[in-house]
Here is the input.
Amino acid sequence: MNQPFGPKTTADEVLTGVDLKGKRFLITGASSGIGLETARSLVAHGADVIGTVRNLAKAELATALIRDAAAQGRGSLELIKLDLASLQSVLDCADKLLADGQPFDAIIANAGVMATPFEQTVDGFEVQFATNYLGHFALINRIEPLLANNGRLVMLSSQAHRIADLDLNDPNFEQQAYDPWVAYGRSKTAISLFSAEFDKRHRDRGIRAVSVMPGNSFTDLVRHLAQEDLQGLFQTIGKARAEAGLAPAELKEIPQAAATSVWAAVVANKDEIGGHYLEDCAVAPINDTPNPFADGVRSYALDADVARQLWVKSEAWVSAVS
Here is the structure.
């Protein structure tokens, strides 16, 4: 794909000259960080955005500037309550969207948590697996009829998928010691596998799905890390990349971190990116070096057989509590 975008590109630069009037998007986690910037950029270019949030009152304040801009004749932003850690909340949100009946040109699954202390959801799932992956699985499959023909699904994965492959037999750490980073990595691997399987199942409607590494940036995602832990993480990343002969990792500004999501949802050739893992506004290469801080995607995160197994198990997990 010939395009001028890269790691420093911003979401607004991706959308330069693009008129999204009449286009409709669903973004989960739209009230802070990358999700907020993604929503802002799409609305600024004329799109109508439905943003899911856990706390409507806080989100109204956080998104006030976007809605003010929308009122001046650009796009629009509406908020809907969703707690991805509760399958009942997921079903309630999905049913409201289905009742509304308006289609989406793209769904951007942005919401997530990172490196949380061990916790189980009300449904009995490990909270990172439930919030980052299983809640999205349930939501997206339930509202799939609203995704327009030739639409797009963008799932935010992470470089952290390189930390850990799935454990389909013990996703909730019931038989092993809990490690917050392993749990996070597994949830992001699951997201990549889900996007690959969704792409396969729905491309007959022209729908294509991708997973995205947005890039490391300072957002609310790091709220569970103490400052010294965060500094230690950056030192570990720098050392691991240096030992592998890789360029130093650079933090992205939030507008840069939102660029790949927007690129995948709007600008990129969907049939060239479909089924792939993206980073820096490009399809990432397969890179199976064990270095967890290397670039590219581990092949296990796109494994077709495991993706099918995960889908089947996820259907069973969701149906058991819904």
Q: What stands out?
A: The mean pLDDT is 92. The first helix runs from residue 11 to 14.
